[in-house]
Fold this sequence. Notes:
Blueprint: E1 8-9, E2 14-16, E3 22-24, E4 28-38, E5 41-51, E6 58-68, E7 79-84, E8 94-96
Antiparallel strand pairs: 1-2, 2-3, 4-5, 4-7, 5-6, 7-8
Amino acid sequence: MAKEIVKNNTSDGKTTTPHGATLVRRMQLSGVVASDKMKDTIVVTVERYVKHPKYHKFIQHTKRIKAHDAGNTKKIGDKVVIESCRPMSKDKSFKVIA
Length: 98
């Protein structure tokens, strides 16, 4: 439904609607579940490859992100897609969508 009411895209990453409201694009990342020991929270390991500016070699960067998993449905080793959301705690500002 949000795609139907989109009027124009602005350069700051937000989309405006005909009523003047803004829709914020959510960041989506994919990774592997590294830990599921907390209640309703999983730790997702997200890996990305970055080219070194001087040596032109690709380096693997790994980041561990806490994500909200209602009902503890994901287990260690599962591939998941997480999406940014409002901060739920000090460290947790992502939720599991797939």
